Amino acid sequence: MNQKKCLKCGHIATFEEANTPQACPKCSAIYAKVEATMRPREAILSATSSRLSIPQRSASVDHFEFAEDMRSSSLYPAFRAVVGIIYWVGIVFAALCAVGGFVAASKTNIGPGPIIAGVVLAIIIYIIFRVTKEASLMLADIADANVRMAARQEQTDL
Predict the structure, then answer these.
(1) Of 44, 83, 122, 154, which residue has the fewest beta carbons closer than 10 angstroms?
(2) Residue 27 — φ and ψ, nearest 5°?
(3) Number of helices and strands (H, E) in the chain?
(4) Is the Cα torsion angle 119, 121, 124, 129 positive or negative in sign?
(5) CA–CA dist 137, 120 (Å, integer)
(6) What is the pLDDT of residues 78-137, one digit of tens each?
(7) Which helix (H) or strand (E) holds 133?
(8) Nearby residues of 67 by Cβ (< 8 Å), 6 or more positions away
(9) Residues 6+ apart with CB under 8 A from 92
(10) Lowest-pLDDT range, 50-54, 92-96, 150-154?
(11) Who's near 123: CB < 8 A, 6+ residues apart?
(12) Are 144 and 66 in contact (CB under 8 A)?
């Protein structure tokens, strides 16, 4: 007795050598056609998984190390670069606000008000740009993680 597993529905047909079935008795899928359809899909998935290079990890991986590894092989490097540039533009703007407060205080005789205002504004701008950078990079991390999970799921679905 021989057996043949249907790649479409998973049914295992038992048969004698002389009576090899051409189609699955459960779903009527023709074995040769299903196998021909699955070959290109398997080739695409193996090529995709090699491009993504998803390493197998142990349970004791440090989450900071994992995040850095994921970020170094990100699918969105241009987005991450733009976020970094915008962050540094914000830092320069915050520094100019602080310097502007000192300059305004030195040019006027109204007391420490401009210095305090410039420094407070610089701190607020710094916090806004810092939080915006972190939120934007979290968005890219989520997107990268979703692609990795989808790739792993696709591999296990075969």
Answers:
(1) 44
(2) -110, -5
(3) 4, 2
(4) negative
(5) 26
(6) 999 999 999 999 999 999 999 999 998 888 888 888 899 999 999 999 999 999 999 999
(7) helix 113-157
(8) 141
(9) none
(10) 50-54
(11) 94
(12) no
State both tokens at 72.
Answer: 């170094």
Q: For residue 3, give both structure tokens.
A: 């057996």
Q: Is 94 exposed, middle or buried (0-12, 13-18, 19+ CB in 10 A)?
A: buried
> What is the torsional sign of CA 8, 36, 51, 147?
negative
Sign of the alpha-carbon dihedral angle for 96, 101, 102, 108: positive
Contact in structure between 15 and 31 (CB atoms under 8 Å):
no
- The owner of tokens 């205002």 is 117
Cα–Cα distance for residue pair 121/131, rounded to 1 Å:
15
Residue 156, amino acid:
T
Tell me the Cα Rg of the chain.
Answer: 30
**Residues 11 and 5 sit within 8 Å (Cβ to Cβ):** yes
Q: Where are the domains of the chain?
A: 2-52, 63-157
In this structure, the number of other CB atoms found within 10 A of the CB of residue 26 comes to: 13
Share of the chain above pLDDT 70, in %: 84
Q: Contact at 8 Å (CB) between 70 and 148?
A: yes
